[in-house]
Amino acid sequence: MNDTNPTPVALVTGASSGIGRAIATRLAQDGHHVIATARRADRLADLAAQVPGVEPHPVDVVDRDALVTLVDDVVARHGRIDVAVANAGVMPLSRLDAGLVQEWDRMVDVNVRGLLHTIHAVLGHFTSADRGHFVTTASVGAHEVDATAAVYAGTKHAAWAITEGLRLESSPGIRVTTVSPGVVASELAAGITDPTARDAMAVYRRHAIAPEAVADAVAYAVGTSPDIDVNEILVRPVRQR
């Protein structure tokens, strides 16, 4: 690494597929050294084999201590962390009267606690350096609620609110962005076990955008001048209303 022009380091959670994989790929192509994290080690290894500049690290964002250890190690080895993309998320939609409490708990654990754990692991390093860029992948569900999406939308509204609070609390050198995707072609819907929600999602996802469209939005926010803070981007298919 050239000390006068160091390679920027980006952490991307949930990087094994879909939006996270697209973001990790785009940031690596844009010149970042990408620390790609997710639970599925085989998917991360495949990503690293295909995309130069990607360093795979299997970790579950629900495991706070493991995430802190990883980030501390990254800073110790690379001397910096410049971007943290909190993208890990799950979406097992269901009506509330379906009573799928364990699935609700998993959404809260990954979508909310996982975000908080990522912030906790990175914020001290950003604050010490008085620079850095947090990016949260929320959802249009942060702004609207559909039947079968009450819990998911609740977690994504929480993600939006937490990220906005982070923006207000952070020192001037730290930038904060929320990207809220609409319908995106990804594996998220594969986790839906409730038949009613699964059927509704099949119709809802007829017009989906590629995950690279969300990666483009992240790259735009990250690539702006350090004195510009792109606070929120909504990106969705033209046909989605």
UniProtKB/TrEMBL annotation:
Lineage: Bacteria, Bacillati, Actinomycetota, Actinomycetes, Pseudonocardiales
Transmembrane segment boundaries: none
Origin species: Pseudonocardia alni (Amycolata alni)
PANTHER family associated with the record: DEHYDROGENASE/REDUCTASE SDR FAMILY MEMBER 11, DEHYDROGENASE_REDUCTASE SDR FAMILY MEMBER 11
Taxonomy, superkingdom: Bacteria
Protein name: NADP-dependent 3-hydroxy acid dehydrogenase YdfG
The keyword Oxidoreductase appears for this protein: yes
GO molecular function list: oxidoreductase activity, acting on the CH-OH group of donors, NAD or NADP as acceptor
InterPro entries linked: NAD(P)-bd_dom_sf (IPR036291), Sc_DH/Rdtase_CS (IPR020904), SDR_fam (IPR002347)
UniProt entry keywords in alphabetical sequence: Oxidoreductase
Family designation: Belongs to the short-chain dehydrogenases/reductases (SDR) family.
